[in-house]
Amino acid sequence: MGILNVTPDSFSDGGRFLVRDEALRQAERMIAEGVDIIDIGGESTRPGAPPVPLEEELERVVPIVEALVGMGVPLSIDTYKPEVMRAALAAGADLINDIWGFRRPGALDAVRDTNCGLCVMHMLGEPQTMQRGQIDYEDVVGEVRAFLAARVEALTQAGIARGRISVDPGFGFGKATREHNFALLARLPETAPEPDAGAAPFPILAGMSRKSMLGVVTGRKTPDERVAASVAAAVCAVERGAAIVRVHDVAETVDALKVWGAVREAELAAR
Ligand code: 9MG
Fold this sequence. Notes:
alpha/beta
């Protein structure tokens, strides 16, 4: 999953149309590099990032969906606002990626009677404040799994088929320490709720690209310096069963996963 942030701080802030043009060029580049899904976001989820008014988010996201919808790549929308979910789905989006796990008023109703996929993420606190407050876990993996299981339950109670749902431990979202984040990565399969008997496991989405958890380990201070670390994290996640990795650096990640895939193939052939 390639990240397409349609926010002025992600591109040169030369006005709405320049941001739109640059976002479309980036989407085309990601498609050429082999992306499987494009995740379009109109509001930054960085800790401390200011909220974006609804009208502004709609104006950023919907034209990009309209421009990309015919290009043969599934489109995911990174939003927690029901109005943006509805407008993006009407424009042809395929998946809603909600960092709030469809907990905000109206979010469940916005997706219930559609066919879109849903990514349900764990987050403690909220983006503006999540790294500032007291963050304590007795058992981070168990608590994340319990949260995701409760959200899956709420979604299915609302009539949403389990097969539409993927789950995400939410790296960096209210995970205060290196131990929290790396326990979640090391034990990634345990973060997903148990499927019903005979049902397929819930696909796991992992998003660590350029995040500070990688800076903590490598000493790389800025997100741009964390490309190699991000690729390593993506491979670790896929090796532990992640079905989707959310990344900025598509070409590098695709190459690394091709190498990982060749090793896996050889391993299976040797059995
Ligand atoms: C929008 N966004 C930023 N980080 C993310 C992550 O780790 N997972 C998901 N699903 N979305 C994310």
